[in-house]
Amino acid sequence: MTSTQERQTVPSYSKFYVGGRWTEPTGSDRIDVISPSTEEVISRVPAPTADDVDSAVAAARKAFDGPWRRTSAEQRGQVLHRIADEIERRVPEFANVFAAEIGAPLAVGQAFHAMSVDMFRQNAELHNQVSLTEVRTDNGDTVKIVREPVGVVGAIIPWNGPVAAAAFKLGPALAAGCTVVLKPAPEGPLTTYMLAECLEAAGVPDGVVNILPAGREVGEHLVRHPGIDKIAFTGSTAAGKRIASICGERIARVTLELGGKSAGIIADDAVLEDVLPTLLPAGIGHSGQVCAAITRVLVPRSREAEFAEAMGAALSGMIVGDPFDPSTALGPLAIERQRDRVEDYIGIGRTEGAKLVTGGGRPAGLVKGFYIEPTLFTGVDNSMRIAREEIFGPVISLITYDGIDEAIAIANDSPYGLSGSVYTNDPNIAERVVSEVRTGQIFVNNAGTCVSQPFGGYKESGQGREGGPEGIAGYLETKMIRYA
């Protein structure tokens, strides 16, 4: 698809979705949406000011203090189902706009937005799994435990999958009875505007969800806002630490879904052909722009050459290019500074002494766009920066170990603990690994993400969980009522 076609197919917006209406911005600044494939401006949207944030918070507070929190869980579930219906109807359109503004191949966009539909539907039925009231007895008295909505939520989401990240937060927040001010990243605003259209079409009551794509300054104003009861954040660990410190100043509730440097452990008995079909997509899918990516691959020392050769051949054979081309496996990095960051880390890996097996540069023939070849390093020590720091690009480090004890130790020797995997035909080895690796999710003979179950991390990968019945917990307060 040419840049002209992109410009014709992507929407532009001049207003914000606040209070159930399309409202005029208070400022005159605009956000340029830049195609990562062509490096051209393909759309513009308004940039909010602090006054716009104040209006959005006021609208959310009015909706929360009004009828929304008094609706039944079943009624809120019906609203969530209608949101899912509207997104599902437009999944192909979402995928096209996602490809234009973020550079994800169409198949990735289809999967991300289908996942969003599933998240809304799952949360629509949480009232059948999670009890919001419980009656107990204590020394002859009746005690009622009531789980009430925490209040107005400020939800801050990244650019790598805006609608999916929004679904992770809007689903449980609305199911709990909260209202939301959603702040998407400025690099990927268009699909979240389309989400606003879906909310409007679904008949979400006025002010229950308000959407303001914006940068860090506006985001910090939202985090500090006294009208916000809870912050739900997905993004980098550095930004998460900043947000947690601000929330700590006023004891605001906070959940954080942060970075990762997840390890995939290949046991000595694993069959190579059974490993690569799931391991490689989990490492470099969506051009590695996934927090749960398996970017450290741990192999027995005796099998390093075997895996290096097979992984290198598979990665070098992947088609990198136009996200609108059905044959494309990897699109560009979403933004120029991210491409530059990945290139810097590849240079760091070389300087640290790691061996480049494949990739390491920009694909030949792609003179425009923020493209990077899928890259594999061997000779990586776990103390190297490329093994310890989140790169957020299509870069995999192959690390050797001697014995499963050392593999577990290497996997745990990380400031992160978000995801992981183990490949083995020995159930005893599998059980040891899943029991001893400190991570929020781990897969046996598979890799990826599972959005229908709790997702989140240990250590610097965050706090709290999203998805599954556990996902609603962060949006509820617990009240004890005792009757004498």
UniProtKB/TrEMBL annotation:
<protein>
    <submittedName>
        <fullName>Aldehyde dehydrogenase</fullName>
    </submittedName>
</protein>
<feature type="domain" description="Aldehyde dehydrogenase">
    <location>
        <begin position="22"/>
        <end position="481"/>
    </location>
</feature>
<dbReference type="InterPro" id="IPR016162">
    <property type="entry name" value="Ald_DH_N"/>
</dbReference>
<dbReference type="InterPro" id="IPR015590">
    <property type="entry name" value="Aldehyde_DH_dom"/>
</dbReference>
<dbReference type="InterPro" id="IPR029510">
    <property type="entry name" value="Ald_DH_CS_GLU"/>
</dbReference>
<dbReference type="InterPro" id="IPR016161">
    <property type="entry name" value="Ald_DH/histidinol_DH"/>
</dbReference>
<dbReference type="InterPro" id="IPR016163">
    <property type="entry name" value="Ald_DH_C"/>
</dbReference>
<comment type="similarity">
    <text>Belongs to the aldehyde dehydrogenase family.</text>
</comment>
<feature type="active site">
    <location>
        <position position="257"/>
    </location>
</feature>
<dbReference type="Pfam" id="PF00171">
    <property type="entry name" value="Aldedh"/>
</dbReference>
<keyword id="KW-0560">Oxidoreductase</keyword>
